[in-house]
Design brief:
Blueprint lengths: L1 H23 L10 E8 L5 E10 L4 E6 L6 E9 L5 E8 L6 E4 L10 E9 L7 E9 L1
Antiparallel strand pairs: 1-2, 2-3, 3-6, 4-5, 4-7, 7-8
């Protein structure tokens, strides 16, 4: 009988803690994930050449676009996410600095924790050029 009371007390305590967490909005912490996306050009010999690298960093919600090729094209990253209200936001950043340079953006952006972030990276000729060799990845803020 005493064992039954003890188990009943434990069960009641667990239900009470769960209810308190639900009411207070206390949940499991979510660890975001970084993502690195690489755009590559397919060469005639069957190999590929890295032309642009985009990185989303969940800690700070920043991103970076690096130009990896001296081809005269700009490297571009587009980062998209939904706000808590359901609105889709997309931020596009270009790197026109040439091979071996990187540009960081996203300062002041606050993406909700656990929110899916879609990262697309490509290269293009000039500001109005067509995106080429688009690569895509998903991370979480």
């Amino acid at each position: 009988m005493q064992r039954f009371k003890r188990n009943s007390l434990r069960a009641a305590t667990m239900v009470g803690v769960a209810a308190t967490c639900a009411v207070l909005g206390v949940g499991q912490a979510f660890a975001g994930t970084d993502v690195t996306v690489k755009s590559r050009v397919q060469l005639a010999n069957g190999q590929s050449q890295l032309v642009a690298t985009g990185i989303f960093l969940h800690d700070g919600d920043d991103w970076q676009i690096c130009d990896n090729s001296a081809d005269g094209d700009r490297a571009v990253i587009a980062v998209s996410w939904h706000t808590p209200d359901g609105d889709l936001r997309t931020s596009t950043t270009s790197n026109t600095g040439g091979a071996g340079t990187c540009v960081t953006a996203g300062y002041g952006v606050d993406i909700a924790e656990g929110q899916e972030v879609v990262v697309q990276v490509w290269h293009q000729d000039g500001a109005d050029g067509m995106p080429q060799d688009i690569a895509r990845g998903i991370g979480y803020a």
